[in-house]
Amino acid sequence: MARNKTQQRPPSLQQRATLTEIAAQLKLSTATVSKVLNGKPDVSPATRDKVQAVLEEMNYRKNRSAAAPLIDVVLERLDNVWGLEVITGVERAARDRQLGVVITETLGVSDAPSFWVDACLERNPIGVILVLSNPAQDAAQRLSSRGIPYVLLDPSGDPNPNVPSIKADNWGGGLAATRHLLALGHTHIGVITGRSTMLCSQARLAGHLAALAARGIPADDSLIKEGDFTTVCGRELALQLLDQDHRPTAIVAGNDLEAMGVYDAAHILHLRIPDDLSVVGFDDVQTSAYMGPSLTTIRQPIREMSSEAVNMLLRRHEQDLPSANLTFPTELIIRGSTASPYNG
């Protein structure tokens, strides 16, 4: 008896047929669907959304070619010590695993069309670490379509809960900084925040206000200045705070760079730290211990967070998906810039 044999399509024909079916279903050309699948840029966001939704619904994935032994790091700026701490943490973890690191500086335009994506797709790295910024929707879809995982490090906005992210306990850090000053006897405390649109800035300020509220001290808007995490801004806003008739006896800075600006303002006004003014920073970058006097600050384990971002990418690359969000504890580091308020 003759046996019926089911003739199997070669894998390449199966793939072409599937793309053709998807294109027909969406009333698009096969070339357009292929562009979405391969992360090409010349597709409108609306069309990309439609194609990506159907690809996900059908669980269609392009077989990814072998990834290059690289980690891509995308961050806003390289010209500050915080960014250098991030790079150090990433590089050390990558070196331990014999991986290279490619760094892209966006110069603050990370929300614009993601110019770095084309080069990233060409390199085909193990994954991407996005520092501070959430990826534009188009960039995220293009990375996903090529199977390139990404991790958000200290995201500035509200991250997608389905995307792995790493941050510090900013609220707890803000709380600890102000509690320390309250314990020393300060009650009139100035604050210089980061940009109000950034989650870390919001959380640090909320922690500060919670510490005041616990002591029954009402918030005073005249003591809160919105900054941008730079030294220049820290200096200018500290001068405004210290120019008030009833000037603060202490200032909590949004980060160590702003605290450096507060030091500069105190020098301009001939105020002694900590005798006339106590100062607390946030981050504990390397230079904070060598300021004069050494800076009391909240330690954010930047290098450890950056190293864990590499580990997350490797786990995602190996399909062992990690917990979506990690929060690292912060720690108060008491040095020479804080003391009881001067009553002389």
Automatic annotation (TrEMBL):
InterPro entries from the UniProt entry = HTH_LacI (IPR000843), LacI/GalR-like_sensor (IPR046335), Lambda_DNA-bd_dom_sf (IPR010982), Peripla_BP_I (IPR028082)
Q: Does the keyword Cell wall biogenesis/degradation apply?
A: no
The alphabetized UniProt keywords are: DNA-binding, Transcription, Transcription regulation
Which GO molecular function entries does the Swiss-Prot or TrEMBL record give? DNA-binding transcription factor activity; transcription cis-regulatory region binding
CDD domains, alphabetically?
Answer: HTH_LacI
The residues covered by the HTH lacI-type domain are: 17-68
Q: Which residues form the signal peptide?
A: none
Q: Which PROSITE patterns match?
A: HTH_LACI_2
Q: Which domain of life is it from?
A: Bacteria
> By its UniProt entry, which PANTHER family does this protein fall under?
LACI-RELATED TRANSCRIPTIONAL REPRESSOR, LACTOSE OPERON REPRESSOR
What is the name of this protein?
LacI family transcriptional regulator
UniProt lineage: Bacteria, Bacillati, Actinomycetota, Actinomycetes, Bifidobacteriales
